[in-house]
Each structure stands twice: as structure tokens, then as C-alpha cells.
Amino acid sequence: MRIDKLKTGRTYVYRNGLLRRLEKIEVKEGILTTGYIPIDRKGSEGQIRWSKAETFAQHALGEAKA
Fold it and tell me: What top-level branch of life does the organism fall under (predicted)?
């Protein structure tokens, strides 16, 4: 996916089949970062995690169908 297509509040499917809900897109120390909440196969949500926006976009296949 492209970074400019990411939108907060949406759920994305990763390459490994797991879901990630994008909560925040921020610039931290000059680096564009994303804050996401991982969702396991049972639907349980975890704590917010941070990664580079480039990494998130590379691993995201597309938006999850609800």
C-alpha cells in the first residue's frame, strides 16, 4: 500500500493475515510514525504499538472488509 492512502480509524489486513486498526499518524523526531492496535484471530484487541509509516504501509495488503 502507499502511505498517502492510509487513514486513521480504519482496519488493515497484514501479510500474515492479522488485523491492525490504525489509530494515529504522527511525526516523532522527524520520522512519520503510525500508532496501531493489533487485533488477534479471536477479535481481542491489544495495546497500542508504534512503527514507521513506511513499514506499516509495506506490510498492509489493504483495508479489511467489515
Answer: Bacteria
- Taking the domains of the chain in order of start, what are their residue ranges? 3-63
Q: What is the C-alpha separation between 29 and 18, in angstroms, rounded?
A: 28
Give, rounded to a whole angstrom, the gap between the first and last alpha carbons of the chain. Answer: 19
Whether the pLDDT of residue 16 is over 90: the answer is no
Residue 17 is given by DSSP the state S
Grid cell at residue 28:
516523532
pLDDT tens per residue across span 28-58: 999 999 999 999 989 899 999 999 999 999 9
CA 37 distance to own-chain centroid? 7
What pLDDT does residue 10 have?
A: 93
Owner of C-alpha cell 489509530: 23
Residue type at 6?
L
